[in-house]
Specification:
Elements (H helix, E strand, L loop, with lengths): L1 H19 L8 H22 L10 H21 L5
Helix pairs in contact: 1-2, 1-3, 2-3
Length: 86
């Protein structure tokens, strides 16, 4: 069940990560959502596998910040690789 919640929160994480990244990003909402889901999955993996943390009641704020950070890195990488020349 945690994976379903991770994917759903990925939708929100993509938008939050886009707010964190400075500058204008030249891509649409679908890419933002996909990168947010990717960041959410990376944050989930880091929290539960690498850091070996267990489920806690309520919101895992550190996992949320890790997910937003991972999504921000993905958005920055995507923007650097596929940036439009103006």
């Amino acid at each position: 069940m945690a994976w379903v919640a991770t994917i759903l929160t990925g939708l929100l994480i993509g938008v939050l990560a886009r707010m964190v990244v400075r500058g204008r990003q030249h891509f649409g909402i679908i890419i933002t959502i996909l990168l947010g889901i990717g960041g959410s999955l990376i944050g989930h993996w880091l929290w539960y596998t690498v850091l070996n943390k267990e489920d806690t009641p309520g919101i895992d704020w550190i996992q949320l910040f890790m997910s937003v950070g991972a999504a921000a890195v993905l958005i920055g990488l995507y923007g650097a690789i596929f940036a439009r020349k103006r």
